[in-house]
Amino acid sequence: MPLKPQLLAATILAVGGFYPDGGHEALAGSAAPRGARIERVMAAADLPDTDTLAGKIRATQSSAQIPLPDPGIDDTAHIVQFDPTAEAQTRSPTPPTAGAAEEPEVDESALRYFAARGDTARLKAEIARLRALYPNWQPPADPLAVPQHRDAKLEAMWRLYSEGKYAEVRRAIAERQASETTWQAPADLLERLSVAEARVRLVNASELKQYDTVVSVGAENPSLLNCADVDVLWRVAEAFVKTDRASRGQDAYRFILKNCTNPAERLATIQKAAALLPYESVQPLLAFEKTGTDGSREFDSVRDALSRSFVAEANRRPEISIDATYLERVKRLAANDTNGTDSLLLGWYYLRHNAMPEAEKWFRTSRDKSNTASASQGLALTLIARKAPAEAEEVMFRWKDDSEDASATYLAATANLLAGDPPPEVPGPVLQRIAAAVVEKRYVPTAQQMGWYARAFNQPQAAIRWFQTALQWKADDEPSAYGLAITQQQLNNHAAVEDIRRQWAGRSQRIANLGLLTSPPPATTRQTTPPTATAVEAPPAPAAATAPTVSAPVRVAAQRAPGPKVTEKATERATASKGNRTDCALGTASAANSQQALSLGWCLMNLNRPLEASEAFEKAAQSNVQSVREDAAYGQSLAYLRLGLTNKAAIAATQTPQTGKRAAELQTAILADRAVSAFNAKRYREALVYLDQRARLSPDTTDLAVLRGYAYMNLGMYNDAWKIFEFVAETGNSDASRGLAEIRDMQNGYR
Amino acid sequence: MRRTFSVVLAFVVLLAAGSSVVRAAEPLVPETLWAAYKAKFMDDSGRIIDNANGNISHSEGQGYGLLLAYLADNRQDFEQIWYFTRTELLVRDDGLAAWKWEPQASPHVTDVNNATDGDILIAYALALAGSRWSNAGYLRQAAMLARAILQHTVVTTKGRTLLLPAAEGFAVDDRADGPVINPSYWVFEALPIMGLLAPSPKWEALSGEGLGLLKRIQFGPKHLPAEWISLSTQPKPADGFEQEYGYNALRIPLYLMRGGVTDKDLLRRLREGWLQSDGVSGGIIDLPSGRTKAVLDDPGYQIINHIAACISDGKRITPDVRRFNPVLYFPSTLQLLGLAFVTEKHPECL
User: Fold this and answer.
1) B168 in catalytic set
2) A295-352 pLDDT, tens per residue?
3) A74: which chain B residues are within 8 Å (Cβ-Cβ)?
4) Could you tell me which chain A residue has the CA closest to the CA of B189?
5) Which region among A55-69, B285-299, B323-337 has the lowest average model confidence (pLDDT)?
6) CB contact, 8 Å: A191 with chain B?
């Protein structure tokens, strides 16, 4: 041992704040977060005088059969006994009082006992201990040769002690005191016994996670805390950490690394410290690492494991920044890692530190080595972050039931996928499995997005069912209610709209505003069934309704005017700043800037006042913000379309470049309007040209198909007209049936 | 400064050890009986073994062991049992004893919760031993334990001062039907000593409440208390426990008598509810039906009836029940406690 145990212990405790200036006040004072420990220490201090107490207890025992001894104890002595530090004192070997006239008698019984047993390690330790206690003492040249006045009973006690039979030592001491009333157990034996018992108690408490007990036993037995028994030091360190005193735990680990020499124990110490202490507390401890003569460093064998654990910790606590060498080491490990765990660690590290491309790379590497839920989840998150939700959905699908986290990630991918702008083309089977998962997990965000998605693809009935489903799961989901309301309005289900408005009165301004629209949305809203089959499946039995795969989105521009995101944003802004219809209608003068003008434009569009809206959009189009200009041009085109000013709409649409989706949307709407105008002007061939142009962008809606039929009819192309009417009439369209009847009548008339 | 104190302390210890102890002819638990008990139920580590329960140990057993060693006036055995108790069980952060210790388990303590009757018995035995043998260490430990008992298990609910069976699991917040109590955890004779160790008016209130509950609570045709009673509303058998008067409860009359309670009606009711047709044995009584689930004919159980009969009717305890032939830990313990009681307080019964 490099230092005397007491000294070492004192160092730990002093650093730990136990005995900064001696005495138990420091212990009690330092224990602020834990009441129990203070309580116990103070309990000892507050005890009634034991003499009085003993007398009172005796008085309760009326039996006179066993006469009680006269305590005859000096009162002043009792004050000492209630000082908790006094106990610790008596347990430490008490050096002779300085300046004592007589040389103390040195108890060599332990020495002789260890010598007789040939226990040289203990013998040496005992000689060192006695020398420290008695500087003038000389060890016997040959402990075995020393003529002993043998004390067989004491020898037996030492034997029991060395066998760890402490209960029997206690028993033997009590037994001998009973038979030899003047016999006193050697202070050495009592001290060692006390420390050994304290060790048993400390270990038991540690095993049972009674960390306050561990700390207090350690504090009361400083001689336990030394390099000869590193296990105890580890347990005390752990107890400190587990009782919110990490810095004292660190002190204990530092003490070991600074003072203790056993290589295996040092290695275990740094591992234990890394497992229990935060990264920043472990780094100073690593500075105690020793370098061998050959340049090797003593913690080399655990550096891989340490690096991994630091990277993992940085994943849990992204606020810390770890040394790049640890990251580099894990990257090197990842290169040779066959099961992908190191790559996975790096993936999460970069994800948590917002380095998404790096994260994606490592997750892909890991997933290639081993497709795990964690790697897939990490990859999916990076994909969602870079707006590739379709692949995220694909990656997570297999793992969606693996854990709650995995499930949440999958569902987030589906919501993001459907909310894409423009709405992506989702293959039928994927849409089906998303629908199934959403229904199974009752996931509201995606159910709502299914509604918007169905709307986007002109499937109002499916949209209604999805919005209703979302509301069933979450009655206060306002966007779903709004989606439901505008879809019902589109279908002219006024009673249903009124119902929703009533339910949401006072809770949603934009739902309230819906009733103020003077006319239903224009164009082809009468249509209830798309010409082709259902693309977006509706709950609750998505699997039952076998939907043909939709190869291309079926879109009708005017029907989605404007799309959910735009509408929501715009009206929210409008209602937030203005609040009601009157304010909305104040006119362009009230719009201080182009952003407000844009909001106003959408607000007016919602009120079906396209003329004023077009003025607002005109003003917004002056913005120097690209996105506002785009939105304004888009809005203006829609406003002109609604006013029937098709050419103006076309011009507005070309003024600012639109996104592909919007451009197509506007183009189809403009062509439809032009076809209608040409038809009304009896320019049927022109109408057919517009319809053909439009059909290249998007299949005919039912209304336009009917229009096309009449154009053929008016041009005398009855066979073509008949085919169209027949096809459309199958959907129950009365205009088409009438067209069929008219052709039939005409042909009958010719006969 | 401290060094001087410790020298003085050493002197004190010397004085105490040196003072002349006058030995009585026979302790309350005679040496031969204690030797037989010890040979059967105590091991070298100072562990008291419950041989009817897979040779486990518990705080109750350690408490009984300490109390019997004290009653046998055997300091070395006391010291030995105390060693096990403090190193193996008295490790909880709150100063109470972990209740259950199993020889085959690791760690040995398999339930770190306490059992309050065990804590009371330990503190009580330490207090008696510390005062008789002038051992300030025992007294100090007794006082600390009593304080922990008071702080963590004595509660006042709706004006009632109650003893919770453990620090965890029985309080109002721990169970839907909490608080739940066990009347056999009231070691009546120990409560005044607890009051000396950790002065508080609650101890006296606790004695009164315990006695009051026993007088009031009568379940089933036998009018006996349940072992586990919910006091959330009107007293009723607690959920999840057998509704019986069993191994816990059968100690109640012994504790009452040892505690100096002389309420004849109460003692008679408990005895009549428990007594079997042979006139001496006790039983495990199913409370709703009043039926006997098992007859308890060990002299350790029977002696409880005998003592009660002697006190009320003056009938002497028959030799077969006085004879100590330890087989099982629990009845053997009760038998020695019963014998010690009559030896001290009712020698006319022997």
Assistant:
1) no
2) 899 999 999 999 999 999 999 998 988 999 999 999 999 998 888 999 999 999 999 9
3) 8, 12, 15
4) A60
5) A55-69
6) no
How many CB atoms sit inside 10 A of residue A57's CB?
24
Interatomic CA distance for residues A678 and A664, integer angstroms: 21
Partner residues linked to B284 by β-bridges: B294
B174 is catalytic: no
Task: Print the SS3 string covering A696-745.
Answer: HHCCCCHHHHHHHHHHHHHCCCHHHHHHHHHHHHCCCCHHHHHHHHHHHH
Please check whether residue A55 touches B, CB under 8 A: yes
Entry field: residues in chain B: 350
Q: Do A65 and B8 touch (CB under 8 A)?
A: no
What are the residue boundaries of the structural domains of chain B, listed by start?
A: 26-349
Q: Which CATH architecture has domain A675-751?
A: Alpha Horseshoe (1.25)
Query: How far apart (Å, rounded) are the C-alpha atoms in residues B84 and B62?
Result: 8
Half-sphere exposure for A580 (CA within 13 Å, toward CB): 2
B5 and A70 in contact by Cβ < 8 A?
no
pLDDT digits (tens, 9 = 90+) for A209-248: 999 999 999 999 988 898 989 999 999 999 999 999 999 9
Question: What residues of A are in contact with residue B17 (Cβ under 8 Å)?
Answer: 177, 181-182, 184
- 3-state SS of A259-295 is HCCCHHHHHHHHHHHHHHCCHHHHHHHHCCCCECCCC
Give the whole-angstrom CA distance, residue A688 versus residue A695: 10
Give the Cβ contact number of residue A50 at 10 Å: 25
User: Cα separation of B78 and B68, whole Å?
Assistant: 9
d(CA A580, CA A512) in angstroms, rounded, equals: 10
DSSP symbols for A675-697 = HHHHHHTT-HHHHHHHHHHHHHH
Q: Domain B26-349 belongs to what topology?
A: Glycosyltransferase (1.50.10)
Please tell me the distance from the alpha carbon of residue A748 to that of residue A441, in angstroms, as a whole number. Answer: 60
Catalytic residue among B60, B209, B227, B244, which? Answer: B60
Task: Say if residue B299 is preceded by a cis peptide, omega within 30 of 0.
Answer: no
Which residues 239-258 of B are in CB contact (within 8 Å) with A? none
Distance of CA B250 to the CA centre of its chain: 12
Could you report the per-residue pLDDT of A557-604, keeping only the tens digit for each?
Answer: 222 222 222 223 333 323 333 233 334 544 455 566 778 888 888 887
The CA distance from A327 to A308, in Å, is 8
For an interface test with B, which of A63, A183, A203, A224 has the most B Cβ atoms less than 10 Å from its Cβ? A63
The pLDDT of residue A584 is 55
A669, A557 Cβ separation under 8 angstroms: yes
> ipTM of the predicted structure?
0.89
The encoded tokens of residue A238 equal 């752990």
Smallest Cα distance from A213 to chain B, Å: 5
Contact B202, B156 (CB under 8 A): yes
DSSP state letter for A527: -
Average pLDDT over residues B36-45: 97
For residue A63, the chain B residues in CB contact (below 8 A) are 28, 344
Considering the candidates B50, B73, B88, B117, report the single residue annotated as catalytic.
B117
Parallel, antiparallel, or unpaired: how do β-strands B109-111 and B154-157 relate? unpaired
Q: Cβ of B92 under 8 Å from any chain A Cβ? A: yes
Residue A123 pLDDT more than 60? yes
